[in-house]
Amino acid sequence: MDMFKAFAVDEARLSGGVWHVIDASTDYPVEASEIGDKCAVLVASMDSPKYRQAIERRMKPHMIRRGSQVDPLVRDTITMEAMAETIILDWKNWEIGGVVVPYSAVKCVEFLTQPKWVRLRERLLNIVGDTDAFKVQQESDIVKNS
Fold first, then answer.
1. How many helices (H) and strands (E) does the chain have?
2. CA gap 130, 73 in Å, rounded
3. How many structural domains is the chain composed of?
4. Residue 32: inside a domain
């Protein structure tokens, strides 16, 4: 088996993100030019060094004050804020009640932390955990998608 073809990831895609079209029942990676009027989100990998640094930066004050124990709710909030800053990079065509919701890290934190958005949060967590989306594209795939 060719390990490169099977497992190599594109490091630029890990931090720069991959667009995913999402709807109520599915999601799939696409090129930006394929989005059109579909609802889409640009996500980087949770393996991004920026994400790990954002977690560490936010956790540091809590580790100093409370030793090594951080309240699970605080940890969850820190994780979602770091995701909003470094993983969920943009979105297109998101609406609530017919009103377009422009991307912002603040709105992203709301979607990731408020109970009414738990289904969206779970979908986003599944998307960012999909390491296959960050695979190196083979020349044949690039030519086919051009």
1. 7, 6
2. 25
3. 1
4. no
